[in-house]
Write a structure and sequence with these properties.
The protein has 690 residues and is of the alpha/beta class. Helix content is 49%, strand content 11%. Helix 16 links the parallel strand 9 and strand 10.
DNA sequence: GGGCCTACCTTTTTT
DNA sequence: AGGTAGGCCC
């Protein structure tokens, strides 16, 4: 009770919010809804995030404490945006809420309660690459010749199948029957691989992304005390982008929301993650699973001109009948120009057009940061990037090479991860394979050797690495590096865990509490610094021509780490935030053109939007057409279109020069199907003087 | 057998 | 720019 009052007084420092004044009627109804299950259908640009954040503020104003609210989102970007706006609005720091992506909250729950399913607090998360590497090892250990047969799928595809099965909670047999029928003869093998893979991960104390959801649900289901705690603790569960939840995510929400406290917010027309198991069935059947659900529709669009909205509505109207909830966005803005469709010769000409038009827009008074260039796939933006760089036009690209996926960043993080969890042989291999003459096989052998030596002599694996008996088996050319690396790892192990605890049970006479005081456990940023100053810092100088800029990247991780108190939390974030893009070309906050994939632009808005590569085969992608996934691409197009506030340009190259011989292309079927008066065609040759 | 080097290809989207 | 198959060397 006192606690609640304190939080309220904090809010009181802020000017009180006049909910009625600041929201429209539709929004107000959703924001102030009575407790109970609610489904908020909020169309694009209708103030979905606004509604969500005001809902939080409303709940706080009603005496709910931040700790009783769970905020779930789908992507890091959405989560960051939402938490920031909640903080701006309520003045309450975001750390008082449980908020973040599903994976983030799952990770946290497992960190607290993982023992019951066999995971220690120091378990480590594997990213895509690690997961595939481990799976590949598992497959080889079961059938050493499996990958020798070129007809067999690669680890990547097998992982994709296993992942899809888990996210949709289907058996691997079913998934293969439906989506991978050509692998029919491998059903049993892959099922076996999946089982062993699962066991191996547990043994190694690692999880992949999917485990973060799976173990989370598992803990809730098998541990009624924990389940009851969270079910009662979270008085309000708010789920953003509900249309993009997959089966396991909706199961988690349903389970946590047993007391009818879920408010799901979403837009079925913007479901664009079915390839990851998202199912807009979830949103369509929400009220069946949550009886007495109150539905709120928010359809007033504040973002776009009537012309752009009409275009968007027409795109939706071309969906097959009965695909989603009926909705029609209503604009309140004054009329603007029709969307422009711009045929261009090729990627180069497309870039030229965009740049020329950008110059015009700047003269009209727009800022660079008002302009976004959206595309279906990273590689569609290649020409664009080249031209912008050539003319030194500032741009921020939130796609392509991801910061945390670059080799040197992963290498550095591998040090920390291995020191934190020495059972993780996958990450060990990644590290020592950097040394000359050490490959996958030798790395595995050396690991076993150190493990055995450690067991016998009551030392950790890392302590054993520099022992003569192990070093003796290291290839001559690698010895020097090996020893340096060992010392660095030993420093890290000490810095992370403090003085070594003997691996076996403590003897009765050990006074480990006294020991703890001798060496302090370092903060995460200090640990990162140790890693950079260790073996790797020297190594990278010899390997990378541009080692200085890479070194800067690593140094920036020290800064990132200083925001963390707990090493495990830092490591989890380093993996889960891997979509955090590097700010190449310009600073994130700089006045620069934004370039992103449509997926990453979801939830964002820009005065001016260029959609490039709007040709049949590029958007929808040929592959989607082949796989019968065109409807999802259409929703994606809808998302792209509804990002625009004032002006929308849709360009399509007529010749594809990407790989090999030039191929003629036509406009996207999504354009062809629209009535002619939905847009205006711009003939580039006649419009050279904007 | 194991590792290295070169040429090729990768991916559609994210955690 | 990073990962990988195929050919070659130890």
């Amino acid at each position: 009770m006192e606690n609640t009052l304190q939080k309220k007084s904090k809010l009181a420092d802020f000017s009180p919010i006049d909910f009625k004044e600041e929201l429209n009627e539709e929004q107000y109804a959703a924001v102030t809804a009575e407790p109970g299950p609610a489904l908020v259908l909020a169309g694009a640009g209708s103030g979905k995030t606004r509604t969500l954040t005001y809902r939080v503020a409303w709940l706080i104003s009603q005496g709910v404490s931040p700790g009783e609210i769970l905020l779930l989102t789908f992507t890091n970007k959405a989560s960051k945006e939402m938490l920031k706006r909640v903080e701006d609005l309520t003045g309450i720091e975001t750390r008082f809420f449980w908020g973040g992506t599903f994976h983030h909250i799952g990770q946290k729950t497992i960190r607290f309660h993982g023992e019951s399913i066999g995971l220690q607090k120091n378990y480590v998360i594997h990213d895509q690459g690690d997961s595939e590497a481990l799976l590949s090892d598992v497959v080889k250990s079961i059938n050493s010749k499996f990958f020798k047969d070129k007809a067999n799928p690669k680890a990547r595809l097998i992982h994709e199948i296993i992942s899809y099965a888990r996210n949709t909670r289907q058996t691997i047999r079913d998934v293969i029957n439906i989506r991978y029928y050509w692998l029919d003869n491998l059903k049993e093998d892959i099922t076996q691989f999946a089982k062993s893979y699962q066991e191996e991960k547990l043994k190694r104390q690692v999880t992949d992304y999917d485990d973060l959801l799976h173990h989370w649900l598992e803990i809730l289901k098998t541990n009624s005390e924990v389940a009851t705690y969270y079910q009662n603790r979270f008085k309000h569960i708010l789920v953003d982008e509900y249309q993009d939840t997959n089966k396991i995510q909706s199961d988690i929400i349903d389970f946590l929301g047993i007391n009818n406290q879920v408010m799901a917010v979403g837009d079925d027309a913007q479901c664009i993650y079915t390839w990851r198991g998202a199912s807009f069935e979830n949103i369509m059947t929400f009220s069946d699973r949550h009886p007495k659900t109150v539905m709120h529709k928010i359809e007033t669009n504040y973002r776009s001109t009537p012309e752009i909205l009409q275009f968007a509505n027409r795109v939706l109207a071309t969906q097959p009948i009965g695909t989603g909830f009926n909705k029609e966005l209503k604009s309140i803005r004054p009329s603007g120009s029709l969307p422009y469709v711009v045929p261009v010769m090729d990627g180069r000409k497309q870039a030229e057009f965009v740049i020329k038009r950008v110059e015009g827009l700047i003269n009209e008074g727009y800022r660079m940061s008002d302009i976004a260039i959206l595309y279906r796939a990273h590689y569609h933006a290649l020409d664009m990037q080249v031209e912008l760089s050539r003319l030194s036009i500032p741009f921020v690209i939130t796609s392509g090479v991801k910061f945390f996926e670059q080799a040197h960043v992963r290498d550095l993080v591998a040090h920390l991860r291995f020191a934190a969890n020495i059972k993780d042989i996958t990450v060990f291999k990644r590290l020592v394979c950097l040394l000359p003459k050490i490959g996958d096989v030798t790395a595995g052998r050396l690991y076993s050797l150190a493990e055995k030596f450690g067991d016998k002599n009551n030392k950790t694996i890392i302590q054993s690495l520099s022992n003569e008996s192990v070093v003796a088996k290291v290839p001559a050319e690698a010895k020097e590096d090996w020893i340096d690396l060992s010392y660095t790892l030993q420093d890290l192990e000490l810095a992370i865990n403090g003085p070594s605890k003997p691996k076996k049970e403590l003897s009765l006479f050990d006074d480990d509490t006294a020991e703890e005081k001798v060496t302090k456990i370092h903060t995460p940023d200090e640990v990162v610094k140790i890693a950079i100053d260790g073996w790797y810092g020297d190594y990278m100088r010899n390997v990378y021509v541009n080692w200085e800029s890479r070194r800067d990247d690593l140094d920036s991780i020290v800064g990132f780490a200083s925001g963390f108190e707990d090493m495990n939390e830092l490591l989890a974030q380093l993996i889960l935030l891997n979509s955090e893009s590097s700010d190449r070309g310009a600073n994130q906050n700089a006045d620069a053109i934004r370039m992103t994939t449509i997926h990453q632009a979801k939830g964002l808005e820009y005065p001016i939007v260029f959609i490039i590569g709007m040709a049949e085969g590029l958007f929808p992608l040929k592959r989607s057409i082949d796989n019968d996934d065109v409807e999802e691409e259409r929703r994606l197009f809808y998302v792209a279109v509804t990002r625009a506030k004032d002006e929308l340009y849709i360009c399509y190259p007529m010749i594809n020069t990407q790989n090999g011989p030039s191929i003629r292309m036509g406009p996207s079927q999504f354009l062809e199907i629209l009535p002619d008066d939905s847009y205006e065609i711009l003939n580039v040759r006649q419009t050279t003087n904007w």
